Amino acid sequence: MVDDGDIRIGDAEREDALAALAEHHAAGRLDANEYEDRRGRANDAVVRRELTALFVDLPEPHPTLRPGRATSLTRPPSPGRPPHQGARGKVSRVLVSLAPFIALAAFLRTESWLVFLLIPAIVAIARAIDD
Questions:
Q1: pTM of the shown model
Q2: Residue 68: CB partners within 8 Å, gap ≥ 6?
Q3: How far, CA to CA in Å, does 65 sit from each of 4, 71, 77?
Q4: What are the residue ranges spanned by the domains of the chain?
Q5: What beta strand segments (E) does 15-129 contain?
Q6: Residue among 131, 129, 123, 128 at smallest CA distance from 23
Q7: At what angle are helices 86-110 and 118-130 packed, to 10 degrees?
Q8: Residue-wise pLDDT tens digits, 34-71
Q9: CA quadruple 45, 50, 55, 60: dihedral positive or negative?
Q10: CA 115 from chain center: how many Å?
């Protein structure tokens, strides 16, 4: 009999895992290097066991792997949005991930701490793109 951890995963499961990792990164649970490492391993994952290994030290959201079912995040989907947002969702996740670096670059250029207000502005723009 095949162990549930040996069941192959698809693109939807990888995208769910990547979305959860992005949330942990945004919450400050993963630094940039660890986030990039786990993102790479999630993209390369072939079986469920490889995805679950990425979340053993993290609280929810994380992929819930049920026997005989596709993976899904344990958090409920946002109201009015499909579970997979496609290209627009990816663009907004990239914008949110890059916001601190954009603000830091602007700070180094202008030497004004006010540029750090760009971070919430970029997040608001990214959410507007999703809507």
A1: 0.50
A2: none
A3: 8, 5, 17
A4: 1-84, 85-131
A5: 63-64, 72-73
A6: 123
A7: 170
A8: 999 999 999 999 999 999 999 999 998 887 655 554 44
A9: positive
A10: 25
